[in-house]
Task: inverse folding
């Protein structure tokens, strides 16, 4: 019997790999890329979210890959994104390995009809497009704005606010936009991600009706009519809470019932705004209330108490 036949499958695979130059080159390239992505935060000359006026610059000695619409270095962004991709891929592979091993062990040990049923379940999961799972996940998470707090709490948002304003100004300038523009961000690991652009007054700015010298609706009219812009300074702290359609169906009721607004109106500093919609549906924005006051912490506590009094459960937050 030859020596090759005595080797294990792993040994034979290793022998074939060692004789494959293309495989070695690919392995070294991937190893170098992973190492570069891991060490890039210590080597990069620019932060990944550093905004500058050097927008859409071509590749140069200062920016090897050029810059994007916000003036950010593209090479830094690519390698920063590679770290996230590697992390997501590693976690996904690890989770799949654990689930797959357990699933296969159970199917192999039990066998019979249960084995066949488990295989059919796997076939169905493979047949469904990935977008279905994304839609189901977003639906389960109920991604609807619950409340707005102004001014924002100090801490993580303090440094992000100027960057968010700069990005919004760049977006409006590039669009040559006139009017009130809402730009919604996610703040993830210190990085701002644009989630939504609303070319109109936005739900997150409804608190301006009660807390600002000029609210977003009046500012929209002023802009479109060519009138001088109003003062947008806030004269108090505010917390705005959305009122969704499920509030009209307490305890799973099948027939809608008007909430008892007296529980809100009896509270000092609270302003109630109903939109006049006659068909309440779960997830539909039927109105909002805003609590205003001088102390942001006290305003937040009052708003959360009012939220609970009207029947909004914490599983919506």
Result:
């Amino acid at each position: 019997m030859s020596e090759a036949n005595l080797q294990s499958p792993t040994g034979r695979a290793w022998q074939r790999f060692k004789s494959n130059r293309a495989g070695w080159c690919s392995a070294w390239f991937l190893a170098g890329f992973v190492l570069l992505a891991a060490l890039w935060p210590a080597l990069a000359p620019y932060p990944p979210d550093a905004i500058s006026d050097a927008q859409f610059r071509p590749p140069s000695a200062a920016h090897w890959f050029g810059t994007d619409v916000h003036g950010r270095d593209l090479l830094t962004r690519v390698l920063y994104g590679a770290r996230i991709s590697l992390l997501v891929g590693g976690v996904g592979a690890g989770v799949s390995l654990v689930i797959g091993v357990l699933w296969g062990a159970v199917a192999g040990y039990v066998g019979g009809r249960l084995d066949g049923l488990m295989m059919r379940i796997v076939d169905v999961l493979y047949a469904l497009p990935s977008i279905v799972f994304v839609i189901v996940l977003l639906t389960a998470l109920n991604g609807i704005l619950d409340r707005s707090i102004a001014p924002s709490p100090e801490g993580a948002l303090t440094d992000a606010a100027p960057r968010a304003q700069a990005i919004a100004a760049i977006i409006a300038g590039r669009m040559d936009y006139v009017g009130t523009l809402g730009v919604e961000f996610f703040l993830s690991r210190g990085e701002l991600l644009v989630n939504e652009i609303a070319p109109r007054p936005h739900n997150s700015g409804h608190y301006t009706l009660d807390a600002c010298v000029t609210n977003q609706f009046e500012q929209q009219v002023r802009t479109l009519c060519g009138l001088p812009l109003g003062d947008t300074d806030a004269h108090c702290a505010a917390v705005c809470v959305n009122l969704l359609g499920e509030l009209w169906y307490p305890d799973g009721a099948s027939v809608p019932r008007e909430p008892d607004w007296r529980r809100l109106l009896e509270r000092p500093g609270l302003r109630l705004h109903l939109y006049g919609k006659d068909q309440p549906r779960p997830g539909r924005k039927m109105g909002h209330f805003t609590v205003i006051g001088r102390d942001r912490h006290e305003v937040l506590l009052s708003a959360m108490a009012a939220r609970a009094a009207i029947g909004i459960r914490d599983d919506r937050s």
